[in-house]
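R.M. (postdoc): so does anyone remember the format we settled on? I'll just put the structure tokens first.
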């Protein structure tokens, strides 16, 4: 497989070599719109010409506010074609957060695409050039479709210096104010080429894009893999059509996060209870047919590399999928390291770990067991924040991830917690919540969990219930959770033992700001809401408290 130095170089190659191959497939109002490489290229070049017509200074920032769609990818490439820097914005952010990013990045323009509630977001956009596409019902500022008609496709390719930025990715902010992570084309190419070298897929493979393209994992793992391999990229129209469209696509590489894997399992078990599934899988011929039917229904029948990332996944969940023939490989990387870190692969996959480091990456553990990494995939720093940048690099140029880890004798890395997530109970003992949370998440009653304990003698578990949990009586929930907590407590140190569980009345979602767009809990935000109640909850006699 040919290697490329940048996303633009990859697109130009496939545009010339396979002009009539499908590149983008977008459902809109139940109708399918398909774009070949040639058709995409023409639209991309015309949009780039319109951007250049504003005569923004070189390396100006162009923001991109949209859910995943064909226009997101075309806009991304058009910004590259015009020689500017993209600033992708999560489509679920509120007006204040959007304004903060647009102001901080000094964006000259914003491209607005597919959104659920633009009316609530538009007040966050300052007086800059606005471009929207009417394909998804937004009509704001200049219209994409008009600009495409008004401008001729540019042919000249921008000349970029090696250290010219390609994008500024604002982190999703699990611990505070989002930071603008600066990347150059080489860091995008580094991880993309390495995965291509390591994972063989069919020619012109299929990809399915549904996790936010504003996040580096989807952008590099799906958009860039598609571009560099000359593949096709399919988008779901909505959450309601997601399962059907994924089943129809049958992607060759599939990336997801633990919450989605748990949802997949939940949906399977809604149709076929675990006892029945276990019995059927033991039958020689029927078991094989059942597996194939379930895996095809999930859309994973042709997936040759299936990855889970963004947060730890329970080994029991990995085992459950493996019994269906679905081998999920955990991977580990961050926006700052360009995902060039640690991966499991089908032929080298150790459950409970995030895999081995890439060969030419340098990794070490600090005296506190913090994972530190150095490679050509690292960011150039945080935008307009030199002091913050200096803080996250050590004297030898290693990026300090903030994650705690340990290596086994084979070189596989296990994440043991997050440095900033550690807290002290009033006994003065430090607790790392992540490993405890992962154990408790084995309960089918638990959807999300946050272990807390600042200012009280023992930690407590804040819990949102899964669909299975919600279907049970309060008595059943209490009985089940007490058993789960006692089981986990058996193997914990005395100061780590969970005292009780608090069942949250409110879901933790992206919309209410309690999870990131990749469905990781925002621990600081959850604690800010509930910290004042810890002592009163702890003082109650019940082991399980319903908020």
């Amino acid at each position: 497989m040919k290697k490329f130095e940048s996303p633009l170089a990859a697109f130009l190659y496939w545009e010339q070599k396979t002009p009539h191959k499908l590149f983008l497939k977008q459902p809109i109002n139940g109708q399918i719109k398909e774009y070949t490489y040639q058709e995409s290229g023409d639209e991309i070049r015309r949009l780039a010409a319109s951007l250049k017509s504003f005569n923004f200074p070189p390396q100006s920032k162009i923001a991109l506010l949209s859910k995943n769609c064909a226009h997101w990818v075309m806009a991304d490439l058009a910004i590259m074609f015009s020689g500017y820097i993209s600033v992708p914005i999560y489509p679920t952010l509120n007006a204040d957060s959007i304004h903060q990013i647009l102001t901080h990045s000094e964006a000259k323009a914003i491209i607005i695409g597919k959104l659920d509630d633009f009316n609530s977001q538009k007040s966050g956009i300052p007086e800059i050039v606005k471009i929207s596409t009417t394909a998804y019902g937004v009509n704001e500022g200049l219209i994409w479709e008009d600009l495409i008609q008004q401008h001729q496709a540019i042919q000249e390719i921008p000349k970029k210096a090696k250290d010219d930025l390609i994008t500024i990715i604002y982190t999703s902010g699990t611990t505070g104010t989002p930071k603008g992570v600066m990347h150059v084309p080489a860091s995008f190419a580094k991880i993309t080429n390495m995965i291509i070298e390591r994972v063989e897929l069919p020619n012109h493979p299929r990809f399915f894009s549904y996790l936010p393209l504003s996040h580096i994992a989807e952008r590099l793992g799906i958009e860039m893999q598609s571009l560099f391999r000359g593949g096709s990229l399919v988008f779901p129209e909505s959450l309601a059509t997601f399962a059907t469209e994924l089943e129809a696509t049958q992607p060759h590489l599939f990336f997801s996060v633990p919450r989605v894997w748990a949802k997949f399992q939940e949906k399977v078990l809604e149709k076929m209870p675990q006892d029945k599934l276990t019995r059927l899988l033991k039958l020689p011929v029927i078991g094989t047919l059942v597996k194939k039917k379930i895996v095809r229904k999930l859309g994973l029948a042709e997936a040759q590399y299936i990855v889970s990332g963004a947060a730890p996944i329970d080994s029991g969940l990995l085992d459950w999928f493996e019994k269906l023939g679905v081998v999920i490989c955990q991977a580990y990387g961050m926006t700052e390291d360009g995902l060039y870190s640690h991966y499991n692969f089908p032929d080298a996959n150790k459950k409970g770990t995030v895999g081995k480091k890439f060969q030419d990456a340098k990794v070490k553990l600090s005296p506190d067991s913090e994972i530190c990494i150095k490679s050509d995939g690292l960011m150039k720093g945080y935008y307009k924040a030199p002091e913050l940048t200096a803080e996250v690099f050590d004297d030898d140029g290693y990026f300090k991830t903030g994650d705690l880890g340990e290596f086994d004798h084979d070189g596989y890395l296990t994440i043991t917690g997050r440095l900033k997530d550690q807290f002290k109970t009033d006994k003065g003992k430090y607790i790392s919540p992540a490993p405890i949370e992962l154990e408790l998440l084995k309960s089918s009653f638990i959807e999300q969990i946050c272990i807390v304990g600042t200012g009280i003698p023992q930690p407590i578990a804040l819990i949102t219930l899964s669909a299975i949990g919600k279907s049970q009586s309060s008595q059943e929930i209490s009985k089940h959770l007490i058993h789960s907590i006692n089981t986990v407590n058996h193997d914990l140190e005395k100061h780590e033992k969970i005292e009780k569980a608090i069942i949250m009345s409110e879901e933790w979602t992206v919309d209410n700001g309690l999870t990131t767009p990749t469905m990781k809990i925002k621990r600081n935000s959850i604690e800010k809401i509930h910290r004042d109640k810890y002592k009163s909850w702890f003082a109650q006699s019940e082991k399980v408290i319903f908020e």
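R.M.: ...and that's the designed sequence above, right after the tokens. Also worth knowing: The mean pLDDT is 91. The domain at 253-301+304-417 is CATH 3.40.50.12780 (Rossmann fold).
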